[in-house]
Every structure is written in C-alpha cells, then in structure tokens.
C-alpha cells in the first residue's frame, strides 16, 4: 500500500499568520484546563503534555509515555498518541491564532512503535486557513527533537464561538469552572481580534 498522503491542505487556503498577541518563541503555556486529559495537571494518568511557542506558527510539545498509556505490553496506545497530537495541534491553533477552535478531523500516521518510557517530541504548525477552517499538521520524534520520526498528524480545526463550549459542556463541569475559574489555567483571549 502506498504511504503517499493526499495533497495537504485539501482545499485552497490563505496563509495562517501568527496573531500579533501570540506569545514569543520560548514561552511555556502550561495546562489550559486542570481536567484536560491532554495537559491537565489534575488528571493523574493524563498525558501532561508540555507546550511552548516556537518560531512562526510553530508549537513545541512533549510528553513521556508511562505505564498508564500502554496498548500492547510496553508500547504506547495509538489512541493516546493521537490524543497527544490533538492536544498539540489544538494548542498550535489556539495560541498562534488566538481563536477558539475544535477538532473537526484528525488523521495520524503511525510510523514507528513508541515504547513506555520514551518521550515524544512534537512540533505542530499552521498550514493555512479557509474561512472557519484551519489546517494544521505535526510530526513526533522519539526521545529528542531530532530523534527518529515516529508519527505524523494532520488536522482540520473549525473556529467556533465561545458559546460552543457553554452550550455543549456538561452543566456540573461548567458550574465547577464558574465557581473556581482557576480551573481554566489560562485566561481567555479575544474572540474578535
Ligand atoms: C488558551 C488556548 C489553549 C487552547 C488549547 C486547546 C487544546 C484543545 C485540544 C483538543 C481539541 C479537541 O479535542 S476539540 C474536541 C473534539 N472536537 C469536537 O468535539 C468537535 C465536534 N464537532 C462539532 O462540534 C462540529 O461538527 C464543528 C464545530 C466541528 C463544525 O460544525 P459547524 O460549526 O456546524 O460547522 P460546519 O458547517 O459543519 O463545518 C464548518 C466547515 O468545516 C467543514 N468540516 C467540518 N467537519 C469536517 C470534517 N470532519 N471533515 C472535513 N470537513 C469538515 C465543513 O464541511 C464546513 O466547510 P465549508 O462548508 O465551510 O467549506
């Protein structure tokens, strides 16, 4: 079977520019929500993905695969690896564009097994925008920023209004955030920049 992926982005796009208020390269973001499985600091067996701003529209992310992340014995579960890319790409879109967006589509190529104990180094970048559609992609390397290539991912994010989260989120979790806003670890950004 051919491993040549279809053209990307799949539609005509405009260049995605880093928002003028996006944090400078090297800025560490920390978790965006305490209970986020991808980055939350209150999720015991979560991925605890660490992210920081890179050059241009890039984001650098990493997480270490633990015993709690296994699929086959001693190997990371593919769904959790895809989760790491969803999170890393979500941060790429959210932080570099400063717009709220949700994943519409995520495709992942698993190129090499990822053992427990390894650290995955992910770089995500914006590939273009077409209306509300934002295209982004990422690569993940094993144990070093220039380590062996283990995964590639491509995603479509769709820009949404903040109402999306209020209308669809479970009431008790929204109430918990209203009562304790520090659960949202990062302040909201302007949705009409
Ligand atoms: C502080 C910062 C930290 C930020 C840190 C953030 C980190 C978060 C990390 C995790 C991110 C997530 O997991 S987010 C959670 C997982 N994702 C979700 O729950 C999304 C569930 N899906 C939805 O709610 C909806 O389907 C939407 C919002 C994606 C789209 O619905 P809509 O608003 O009605 O818009 P709709 O017209 O359908 O779609 C808009 C355009 O996108 C296209 N489109 C939509 N979905 C697809 C698709 N799967 N494949 C192809 N194309 C698609 C449509 O054809 C259309 O194109 P055209 O007609 O305009 O050409």
TrEMBL record:
Reaction catalysis annotation: hexadecanoyl-CoA + H2O = hexadecanoate + CoA + H(+); tetradecanoyl-CoA + H2O = tetradecanoate + CoA + H(+); (5Z,8Z,11Z,14Z)-eicosatetraenoyl-CoA + H2O = (5Z,8Z,11Z,14Z)-eicosatetraenoate + CoA + H(+); (9Z)-octadecenoyl-CoA + H2O = (9Z)-octadecenoate + CoA + H(+)
Origin species: Actinophytocola xanthii
Protein name, entry field: Acyl-coenzyme A thioesterase THEM4
Any one GO MF annotation of this record: hydrolase activity
Keyword Cytoplasm: yes
Disordered: region residues: 1-26
Protein family: Belongs to the THEM4/THEM5 thioesterase family.
Biased composition (Pro residues): 1-10
One Pfam family named in its UniProt record: 4HBT
